[in-house]
Structure formats: C-alpha cells, structure tokens
Amino acid sequence: MKKTFICTALIAAGALSLFSINNGISYKTPEFALKNYYSALTLGYDKSMSEKTIKAAVIDSYFRELVANGKLIRWNKSSFPLKVYIQDTEDVPAYYREVVMSAFQTWQRASEGLVRFEIVENAEGSDIKCYFKNPSDSKAPIGTQAFTVNGNTFSDSVITFKKKDEKNHSLDSKQLYSSALQEIGYSLGLVAKSPSIYDVMYPVGTKFNTEITPRDLKTLALLYSVVPDITNTPITAEEKAQLFTSTEILSTLNVPVDDSTNVDEVVANDIETHLALAEQYRKRAEYDKAAEEYQAVAQMKTDRRSKSEVYYEVAVMYLDAEEFDKAKSCAEIACATDMNDKTEILSALIDYYMKRSNSAVEQLDTILQQNPYNRYAYKLLCQIYRDKHQENLLNATIRKYGRTAGEIEN
C-alpha cells in the first residue's frame, strides 16, 4: 500500500497502476502513444514562478540531496523522446519486458510528458538500454544503472536487471516493477537517495515505494529546471537563460531544514516550514512532535479535503510506528473532516496493519462494490492478496476492478 506525501505545489500525478500489466493490456506496439494522456502544460518550474512556489517545491522534494550528491546529470530536454531498447530474450519470462515497458510508461504519464520515451527494437543508437543478465553475485540488487560518461557529456544509460532472484526463482512482477521505476529514475538523473521510504528513489525497495510520489515528481521537475553539470548534448545559451542554477533554487530556502538542522530551534510561520519540520521529526521517530507540525498545517489549510489529507498522513505515520490507538484517533478525525476515496479505506488500512486481514478484505470488498473506481481500496485489496499469496483472488480482483480502479485516467 502506497502512502503519498502531502502535495503543496500543483502536481497532477497520473500514474499507471502496477496491476494493469495483468489486466489484458497489450504492449506490443514499439512506441508509446500517450499524446492524450498528459496535459499541454508540462510539469516543471521556470523563472516566471514565484520564489514561494519554488521554495515549497524544494522543501517537499529531495532536490537538496541531489545537489549534495555531486554534479547534476540529466538529459537535454530537446532529446526527448528518449529511444529505449529493452532486450527481448527467450530465457526470461515474457512478462519481464512488459513490466519494464510499463515502468517507462508510468514515468511518462506521471511526469505529464516532461520525460517521454519511444521503444525501439535495436540497441544501437538507443539512449537507454535495458538488459537481463545474471550477475556473478547472487545477492546483487535486482537492477543496476550506469551512464556512459566522457568528461561533461554522456552518451547513454545502461540498465541491467537480474534474470533470477537469490533463490534462483523468476522475479516477481512487483519486485521487477519497483526496481525498474528506480533504475529509470537514475537514468533520468535522479541519482540522489531520497530519505523517505515512500519515494521511488528511496535506496531500498519496500512494499511502499512502488508508485511515483509528488516528491519524486517535484525533484524531477526541479532537476529539469536547472543547468546541468553533465548532459548528453550541449545546452545552448538561449536555453540556459531560461533555466535556474542550483544555487538560485537553494537560495529560496530562507529557513533551511535538513538532517543537520536543530529543528527544535526553528520557528515555523508558513505551511512549507511546518511540513519540513514534520518530515524531520518523522524521520527521527519523534512522532508526537511531527503530529504537532502536521496539526499546524491542517489549521492553515482552508478546505476540508486538504485538511483531511493531513490527518490521513498523521494516521499513516502512527500506523508505521505501530501506535494504533493514535492512528485510530487521527483516522476518525480525517473521516469526520472529509469522507472521500482515500479516507474511506482508513478503517481497513488499520486492520491491515494490525494483521486483521479478513476484516480488511470484507471492508474493501464493500467499498469497491459501492464504488468500483476507488483506486485506494483496489490497491490495498490487491496488496493483501499478494501478501497472502492468494493469486486466484488477486487475479479475480484485477479482472473485476482493474479497468475501473486499476488505472488513473487523466
């Protein structure tokens, strides 16, 4: 189950569901035909935007970690769509290629076309090359990525996926999908490690980071709004004039809040700083202090839906901490503030965390019967069936609700 961080900038994160690959969708065409799936206004930041907007994006992203990681590397935006080669080999299951292709499609859709791809059948001349090979070390990660760099330019990105897991079994589609999302992120230039377990670019795969988050998207958009240190083709003077420098982006942080900050000394006067403090307290397992900051955010929100999303986030935080009574209290507030598709599943989510899966399944079944478009209920129900290795029930759920709740249509 994926819990999404609170979004403070305008991001429409339409993402292809993991489960759509089992939903009868064909990926046989060599190109993605997604022109109608993203808006004409591409996700991004530019110099026409206010300092406050940029500051909010920086705080609710891991752009600072990206800058601290070293030289910024990314594609020249004029290079999109990038040509992607995915090895078609008979010694791995057929779904491997479809899963990787679906991960590329997810990045394209979620970024609203900021990044775009074209699947090609030949490795020669492609920008991103994906291969399936078994490394000598069986404990190596599922996927690895590397740029071919020469000085301040690079020619391509090579992604290599394992053929088998440590037990010499074929990779689970969910494992491969999560790895593919991350390796594609690296290929796009997101070479920093997010500190949040919910983000795709968190360094260790978890059951949470199988969906591109607003934090992932904001970091990507910020990266593609600055002049890179390393790129595939030179950035022209005219293009540079429209871009920020990383220093200009970071200078918007009048009150920097990061891992080294003494957060107890920070005085927050705006939503962005309260969110940054909440994140830091959460990372430090000071959950009650984090809840206080989230509470301040909720009080500053003006509409019921936004307020309920804050309380939902606090409930999830306490669930992760296994403080179930506090989670229940926050869930009740979230539902009372605004009952929507997200808050409606909180009771089932609590049961799931408390290992009362039968009760959770009953509630989710009821929700989906009443509203077959509730993607949160659908994803949680599929997650429970996957956890219990109940493939028949999982496939039945996908067949029944995959076309209504399994995809997010823009």
Outline the structure in words:
This protein has 410 residues and is an alpha/beta fold. It has a domain at 1-254: Collagenase (Catalytic Domain). It contains 15 helices and five strands. The chain has helices at residues 51-59, 63-68, 94-110, 173-188, 214-223, 237-241, 246-250, 271-283, 287-300, 304-320, 324-337, 346-353, 357-370, 375-387, 391-405, and strands at 82-86, 117-120, 128-132, 143-150, 153-161. The protein has a five-stranded mixed beta sheet with strand order 2-1-3-5-4, with helices on one face. Strand 4 and strand 5 form a beta hairpin. Helix 3 crosses helix 4, helix 12 (346-353) runs antiparallel to helix 13 and helix 14 runs antiparallel to helix 15 (391-405). The radius of gyration is 21 Å and the shape is globular. The two termini are 22 Å apart.
The secondary-structure element order is: HHEHEEEEHHHHHHHHHHHH
Q: Separation of termini?
A: 22 Å
> What is the CATH third-level topology name of the domain at 1-254?
Collagenase (Catalytic Domain)
The CATH architecture of the domain at 1-254 would be 3-Layer(aba) Sandwich
Which sequence of strands runs across the widest sheet?
2-1-3-5-4
Mean pLDDT: 82
Sequence stretches where pLDDT stays below 50 over 5 or more residues: 1-41
Helical proportion, percent range:
40-55%
Structural class: alpha/beta
> Would you report the number of β strands?
5
Percent of residues in beta strands:
5-15%
| Rg over alpha carbons | 21 Å
The CATH C-level class name of the domain at 1-254: Alpha Beta
Largest sheet: 5 strands, mixed
| Tertiary shape | globular
